[in-house]
Description:
By secondary structure, this protein is an alpha/beta fold. The chain is built from three helices and three strands. It has helices at residues 11-24, 39-46, 62-72, and strands at residues 3-7, 28-33, 50-53. The longest helix is centred in the N-terminal third of the chain and has 14 residues, at 11-24. The radius of gyration is 12 Å and the shape is globular.
Amino acid sequence: MPKVLLVYDQKLIRDGIKSLLALSGSIDVVGECADGSTVIASCQQLKPDVVLLDLSMPVMNGVQTLSALKQGAKRCRCSF
């Protein structure tokens, strides 16, 4: 079962995506982040297989966060 980290600044949207993923029964949402600045630490702690990342966020936008993930992760494959 793939482990997913949801990253979206609006809680209502995160909750909706989480509900949709739960319906599949084969995806495990292991964590949520409201901005890009907390993603790196969450990835190190939770070790998700997939990060669903919003591109437009406060503090660190999605592109900045993706770049930071690529630099810090040894086995990270990043794509849009």
